[in-house]
Amino acid sequence: MAEFPLHLVRQRRLTDGRTVTIRPIRAGDEHAESRFLEKLSGESQRLRFLDFVQAPGEKLVHFFTHIDYDRHMAFVCEAEGGALVGEARYVANADGRSCEFGVVVADEWRHSGVAQLLMDALIRAAQARGLETMAGLVLSENQDMLRFAKLLGFELNPDPAKPALVRVTRKL
After folding, report:
1. Cβ distance 85 to 20 under 8 Å?
2. How far apart are CA 34 and CA 19, in angstroms?
3. 1, 25, 95, 135: most buried by Cβ count inside 10 Å?
């Protein structure tokens, strides 16, 4: 595993005055990551994992926290007190030029600006890595995420084979 990229840690103030830390995830975050994922509502879990994951288990949490900071990068939002309240990640594709991303924010922190901070950090990291394209799958019913992706400059393309999914893609 690569060395923790300390230079990517940033403190940010939200519009409501709360201070958060945006930082890369660490292997030592397993317990905090597990708590974060468990506290997500069933609906938030479904929207993030597209029904592919019923309940985030130990193997998924290990995968999420033991990353190489190169092909797999993840940022978390840590609130005062140390609780994780959001995360955004990419995993580079085999072509080495594109990546798949995902983002999720704790239910009580939605619409706070956390997702914007996380995605800004993630996009900058992907650009610094030399990736050219970032893409993800979003349920077509997830209108909040589709609006957010569009605001971030992603193109939205419905999947003709799977009408429940929209592929969002952005050139970096």
Report:
1. yes
2. 22
3. 25
> 61-70, pLDDT tens digit by residue?
999 999 999 9
Buried b (16+ CB within 10 A) or exposed e, 74-108: bbbbbbeeeebbbbbbbebeeeeebbebbbbbbee
Residue pair 101/90 in contact by the 8 Å Cβ criterion = yes
H-state helical runs in the chain: 30-39, 42-49, 58-65, 114-129, 143-151
Q: Which two tokens stand for residue 124?
A: 């900058």
Q: Return d(Cα 90, Cα 121) in angstroms, integer.
A: 11
CA dihedral over 161, 166, 171, 172, signed as positive or negative:
negative
**Which stretches of 50-101 are DSSP H helices?**
58-65
Q: For residue 40, how far is the Cα from the chain centroid? A: 14
Q: Is 156 within 8 Å of 116 (Cβ atoms)?
A: no
Spatial separation of the C-alpha atoms in residues 44 and 148, rounded to whole Å: 15
Chain segment 48-89, per-residue pLDDT in tens: 887 655 566 788 899 999 999 999 999 999 999 999 999 999
Residue among 89, 76, 94 at smallest CA distance from 49: 89
